[in-house]
Write a structure and sequence with these properties.
- The chain is α/β, with parallel strands linked by helices.
- It has 3 domains: about 5-100, no CATH class; about 110-370, Rossmann fold; about 380-555, DNA methylase specificity domains (Adenine-n6-DNA-methyltransferase TaqI, Chain A, domain 2).
- The longest helix is centred in the last third of the chain and has 33 residues, at about 535-570.
- It is elongated, with a radius of gyration of 30 Å.
Length: about 575
C-alpha cells in the first residue's frame, strides 16, 4: 500500500517523457495502449524475478494474469514483444509505476478524456474524505479521481465504475499499485443494480451531451420513472441532469455529491424545470464554472455542481479564469485549487453565496457569472425590457434547406444572418430566397423591429427598415424585438444597448465562456432606463439623433464602396490610357 509521501515521490517523475520513450521503442499503432501494457509488464518482471519476459507465452505462464488483463496485454504487445524487452533495465520499478499512475495519454480524446489531474484534486479536496467512508467514482475513466482521493485519505473504501473496458483495466492497474480497499468495476451505472444508496460521497465525470438512447434499457426506465414524478426530465437537452440525479440517489446521509456537467445545462431554458426541482429540494450546495480547455480535445464549457442536503442558498463560484493558460490546454494548478477551495467557503472576488429566492427570481439560472461582478445600481425609472417589446428568436433553418431555397436572382424575399450586420447596420445586399414555408412567416421582420444577436460578443444590434413589398427572414442566431409599448423608440433602445451601460448590462446576463450567449428569459428581465411620460421628448431627441448618425454612416459606407471600386480598377484604367 502506497502512502502519501510515496505517491508524491512518484508524481515527481516525468511520466510523459518515460511514456514517450516506451512508445518509441514499441513502434506500434495505438501507442497509448502499448505504453501502459509495456510499463505494467516491465514493472511486474522487475518486482518479481520469477516472472519471465523472454517470450510472451513465458510471461503469461509465470505472471498469472486475470483473463481481461491478459487479453489487453496480448492485443497491445504481441507484435512488439521483442522490442520492449530492451526497456527492462532502462527504467526503474518506480519510473514504470509513475507512468501507470500519472500518464493520461496524449491523443485527441474529446468527450471521453480522462479527468484532468487538477480537477480530480479539487474534487477530492472538496469531498473531504474521512477514514471508513465509502466513495463511488461514477465513470472512473483511468481512475484519476480515486488516485487523488487516495492521496488525501487511504483508509477509505473506493469503488470505481467505468463503462469503457480498456479504461477500466488501466484504472484497475492503478488500484493494484495504490493498494488499499479499491474496487474497479466495468459496467453501466444504470445497469449495475449493485449501485444503490450506500455511499458516503460520490464523484461523477460522465460523458457530456448523451441522449436517453445511450443509457441502455435500465437507464431509459430510470428516466421514465423520473419523468413520471417530474415531467421536466422528459424534455431536457441532454442526460446531464439525469446523471446528476442518479449520482445523488447513490449517496446516503449528509454526504456530498460532485458532478462535472456541461455549462449550458446550468442556464438553458429547456432544463429550467429540472433545475427548479433540484433547488426546491435544497440539494444544490455549490456551482463552480470551470476554466475552458482543461480537457484534452474537448471545447465544451464545463461546470462542477456540488450536491448535499438542506440548503437555502447556493455558493456560486466563477473559476473560469482561475488556471494556468497554455497554448493547447489550460491547467488547474495547486495554487489555483487553493484559491477555488477558499472561494467555496466564503464570498470573494470570484464567489458569492446566493439565496435560493434570488436564483428563483432569475428563472433558476445556475450560471455563476450572472451573480458575480459589481452589483447593479438601481436604474431610475427602469422598466423590464419584456414589458416594452415582444422578443422572439429568428427562424432555425438547416443550411441544407437554405441552399435549396437560395436564389441567384432578385426576389421579394431575403435572408438575414448574423454576418449581415456590420457597424450596427444591416447590409443592403442580403441573400435572396425563392420562397419560404408559410410556417416561417412569423419570423419575417417588420419595419422598425430591433435585431439583437443571440451569441458572440460584442453583441450586434440593428434596426430593420423594411420597404414596401420586401420580406426579410431572420436567422435563428438573432432575437427579434417588436415594440409593444409606445413609450420606447427602437432607435433609443439601440442607442442604449450600444452604450457603455447597455453593454455592461448585456454582459451581466451573458452565460457561457466558449460561446457567450444571451437567454431570452434574462433578456426580458433586463431593466431599461425610461424617462417618465412628461420627458418623452428626450426619447424622440435621442432617437432622431441616432437615426441621423445611421443615415450619415450609410452615406459614408456607400462613398467608401465607390472609392474601393475605383482603387480596384486604377491599374486597368491606366493600361487603357
Amino acid at each position: 500500500m502506497l502512502n502519501r509521501n510515496e505517491l508524491e515521490k512518484l508524481r515527481e517523475y516525468d511520466s510523459d517523457k518515460i511514456a514517450s520513450a516506451i512508445a518509441s521503442t514499441c513502434r506500434m499503432p495505438g501507442a497509448e495502449r502499448s505504453v501502459w501494457a509495456a510499463a505494467y509488464v516491465l514493472m511486474r518482471s522487475l518486482e518479481d524475478y520469477q516472472i519471465s519476459i523472454d517470450t510472451i507465452e513465458l510471461y503469461f505462464s509465470s505472471a498469472n494474469e486475470e483473463p481481461t488483463r491478459e487479453l489487453y496485454i496480448r492485443q497491445a504487445l504481441s507484435q512488439c514483444w521483442d522490442n520492449i524487452r530492451e526497456l527492462k533495465y532502462r527504467f526503474t520499478v518506480d519510473e514504470f509505476k509513475a507512468v501507470l499512475l500519472f500518464y493520461n495519454g496524449d491523443g485527441i480524446r474529446g468527450w471521453d478524456s480522462p479527468t484532468p489531474d487538477g480537477l480530480a484534486k479539487l474534487a477530492a479536496r472538496l469531498l473531504n474524505v474521512k477514514p471508513g467512508m465509502k466513495i463511488l467514482d461514477m465513470g472512473t475513466g483511468l481512475g484519476s479521481f480515486i488516485r487523488e482521493c487516495y492521496a488525501e485519505e487511504h483508509e477509505a473504501t473506493y469503488v470505481g465504475l467505468e463503462i469503457n473496458a480498456e479504461s477500466a483495466i488501466i484504472a484497475g492497474i492503478r488500484a493494484d499499485i495504490l493498494g488499499g480497499d479499491i474496487q474497479i468495476r466495468t459496467g453501466n451505472i444504470f445497469d449495475d443494480t449493485s449501485v444503490n444508496r450506500e455511499y458516503n460521497a460520490v464523484f461523477a465525470n460522465y460523458p457530456l451531451g448523451l441522449k436517453s438512447r445511450n443509457l441502455g434499457s435500465i437507464g431509459k426506465e430510470y428516466v421514465r420513472r423520473l419523468s413520471d414524478r417530474s415531467p421536466g426530465y422528459s424534455k431536457i437537452s441532454s442526460m446531464d441532469w439525469v446523471f446528476n440525479r442518479k449520482a445523488y440517489d447513490c449517496v446516503v446521509g449528509p454526504g456530498r455529491v460532485i458532478c462535472i456537467m456541461a455549462s449550458g445545462s446550468t442556464w438553458n431554458t429547456i432544463d429550467k424545470r429540472v433545475r427548479r426541482e433540484f433547488l426546491s429540494l435544497g440539494i444544490v450546495e455549490m456551482v463552480i464554472s470551470l476554466p475552458s480547455r482543461i480537457y484534452d480535445g474537448m471545447g465544451v464549457a464545463t461546470s462542477m455542481i456540488v450536491l448535499s442536503h438542506g440548503h437555502t442558498s447556493v455558493m456560486m463560484v466563477d473559476a473560469s479564469e482561475v488556471c494556468k493558460k497554455g497554448r493547447r490546454m489550460n491547467i488547474i494548478t495547486d495554487d489555483n485549487i487553493s484559491r477555488i477551495f477558499d472561494a467555496c467557503a466564503h464570498d470573494s472576488d470570484i464567489s458569492r453565496l446566493v439565496s435560493c429566492r434570488e436564483i428563483e427570481e432569475n428563472d433558476y439560472n445556475f450560471s455563476p457569472s450572472l451573480y458575480l461582478g459589481p452589483q447593479e445600481e438601481e436604474i431610475e425609472n427602469g422598466v423590464a425590457l419584456g414589458e416594452l417589446v415582444s422578443i422572439t428568436r429568428g427562424a432555425q433553418v438547416n443550411a441544407s434547406v437554405l441552399d435549396k431555397l437560395s436564389s441567384p436572382t432578385e426576389t421579394d424575399t431575403q435572408y438575414l444572418m448574423l454576418s449581415n450586420i456590420q457597424n450596427g447596420l444591416i447590409d443592403e445586399e442580403l441573400p435572396y430566397l425563392t420562397e419560404i414555408d408559410p410556417k416561417l412567416e412569423k419570423y419575417l421582420l417588420k419595419d422598425n423591429d430591433l435585431i439583437l444577436s443571440k451569441i458572440g460578443t460584442p453583441f450586434k444590434v440593428a434596426v430593420a427598415e423594411i420597404g414596401a413589398g420586401q420580406k426579410i427572414l431572420a436567422n435563428g442566431n438573432l432575437y427579434i424585438m417588436t415594440v409593444v409599448d409606445q413609450r420606447i423608440d427602437p432607435y433609443y433602445l439601440k442607442a442604449y444597448l450600444e452604450s457603455e451601460k447597455g453593454i455592461a448590462a448585456l454582459k451581466k446576463i451573458t452565460v457561457g465562456t466558449t460561446i457567450p450567449s444571451l437567454g431570452v428569459e434574462q433578456l426580458k428581465k433586463l431593466i431599461i432606463p425610461l424617462p417618465p411620460l412628461e420627458e418623452q421628448y428626450r426619447i424622440k431627441k435621442i432617437a432622431d439623433e441616432y437615426k441621423a448618425c445611421v443615415t450619415e454612416l450609410k452615406l459614408l459606407q456607400r462613398k467608401t464602396a465607390k472609392v474601393l471600386d475605383r482603387m480596384a480598377h486604377i491599374y486597368d484604367s491606366g493600361k487603357e490610357a
